[in-house]
Design a protein that fits this description.
about 100 residues, five-stranded mixed sheet, single chain, globular
Length: about 100
């Protein structure tokens, strides 16, 4: 785990030797009740091994150990079953948009 100097974010990476297989970031405000899980992902060849689940669980554990009460995740539907099994609940959904600049 790598943490920033202010102690308000951490990056966790699962490695196979020198090769990263899965990674995710945790951010929180020291003394606050909220934390966010960001950038979680696993390379396609390593999916199905439980790496994403383990990283979500570990980041939530770290947040709880720092006194965080609420953890939010902005995730795709692919992550929903994993997050549901870990006790996360859907509060809302977002609609992604892609903007294409107009042709000149």
């Amino acid at each position: 785990m790598l943490t920033d100097r202010a102690g308000s974010s951490a990056v966790l990476v699962v490695l196979d030797g020198d090769r990263p297989l899965s990674a995710g970031r945790l951010e929180w405000d020291e003394g606050g009740e909220f934390a966010g899980l960001w950038g979680g992902g696993t390379v396609p060849a390593a999916r199905g091994l439980g790496l994403y689940r383990a990283l979500v669980a570990e980041r939530a554990r770290i947040a709880a150990a720092r006194g965080v009460r609420w953890v939010q995740v902005d995730a795709t539907d692919r992550s929903r079953p994993i997050l549901d099994r870990l006790g996360f609940r859907t509060l809302s959904t977002t609609t992604p948009y892609v903007w294409t600049p107009p042709a000149n």
